Amino acid sequence: MPNTIVIGAQWGDEGKGKIIDTLSERYNVIIRYQGGCNAGHTVIIGDKKYILHSIPSGILRQGVLNIIGNNVVIDPLKFLKEINDLRNVGLEVSPENLRISDKCHLTLSYLNKLDEATGKKVETTGRGIGPTYTDKTKRIGIRTFDLLDLKRLEGKVRENTESTNYMLKYCNATVLNVDEVMEGLSEASEGIIPFIHPNIGSLILGYDGSLLYEGAQGTLLDIDHGTYPYVTSSNPTIGGAFTGTGVYVNLENRIGILKAYTTRVGNGPFPTEQDNEIGERLRKMGGEFGATTGRPRRCGWLDLFIAKYSIIINGFNQIALTKLDVLDQEDTIKLCIKYELNGREVRFEDFTINRIEEYTPVYKELPGWKKNISEARKIGYLPENARKYIGFIEDYLGSKLQ
Ligand code: IMP
Fold this sequence. Notes:
By secondary structure, this protein is an alpha/beta fold. The chain has 3 domains: 4-101 and 200-255, Adenylosuccinate Synthetase, Chain A, domain 1 (3-Layer(aba) Sandwich), CATH 3.40.440.10; 105-192, Adenylosuccinate Synthetase, subunit A, domain 2 (Orthogonal Bundle); 260-397, Adenylosuccinate Synthetase, subunit A, domain 3 (Adenylosuccinate Synthetase, Chain A, domain 3). It is 30% helix and 18% strand. The protein has helices spanning 16-24, 76-88, 109-118, 129-137, 150-170, 178-182, 185-192, 200-205, 239-243, 277-286, 304-314, 384-397, and strands spanning 4-8, 29-32, 41-45, 48-52, 65-68, 98-101, 196-197, 211-214, 253-259, 262-264, 298-300, 302-303, 318-322, 332-341, 344-345, 360-367. An 8-stranded parallel beta sheet has the order 7-6-5-2-8-1-9-13, with helices on both faces. The two termini are 17 Å apart. The relative contact order is 0.15. The mean pLDDT is 95.
């Protein structure tokens, strides 16, 4: 099997989990390289529904090594809970099948508090993600490595709690003391230390087999290439896979996951949004509620211009289309094929994500198929109009859909 990376081509929640689950049968190493417990990947085990947040989905299969790279941020208390929950449903979670970089930054409770106090504009997931990456770039972050020496960690926690308290006071939020922040950390560190690995890069390079990289969130939430500032704080895009693990590997399969319509959670520009009964229907049909926060997702038509932008950023050589059946009830289906600014077409060369709010989407309208296609397992079983919808996307993107 060639090395593979799976990345969301929109604003996250494209259905990456399902594709990764299917692919993971064929890989023995699965790697997370960015984000943290802002991600949510729903899995059904027997009659139990379980949501993975930080641990790669290979943990559900025997014989798979799951690696968490340096640019993933870890909330130690939530992480330990995730491990224990998996163990409680009978799954093995040990250093045999899970390894974490010693350079992962930790989300401690003052960072959760800070996110709650400052994340409203972006409507973050409230999991402390932004403040954790902020501390990382401020060079005051606390890392998995620090769990190995709790005494020294406490000194750092004291400094950071005190400085964060200034900000919390400014935001009229309740402040924390060091003891509160340290609560549970000793137990969490004991639980996490066995998984910490000093050199994730060499672990990856030393593996004689194919690798599956699992992107979280999506291209338009990328801190550099997304709809800044309404983005997450890491790089879900392809470059993030290398900085987020410390090594370059040749990723022969670069799979973009494209949902047949668009969703986004939280604030920020969304040109094809349907804040009306169409959007409501898509939300209901697609079960579009956040796996991490339960928030209803904003819904709208597929934006092919944005899909093209994602393809270029990530060098996708395969596109997987998901959730086509959510469009089953639509009489007509729209696709954004270009943007206009002051009545003039925005050429792709002139497009800037910074102006996305000023652009007006221009749509192609196609007839719906008005049939339940949820059981169709092959393209040939789809109604003609569904095949036409797929054909239109393929022609536009110049890529065969999987
Ligand atoms: P944060 O990552 O919690 O800081 O949130 C920043 C933005 O990214 C918010 O708009 C979130 O709703 C969005 N976001 C973060 N993680 C996900 C995800 O897994 N799916 C969809 N949106 C996400």
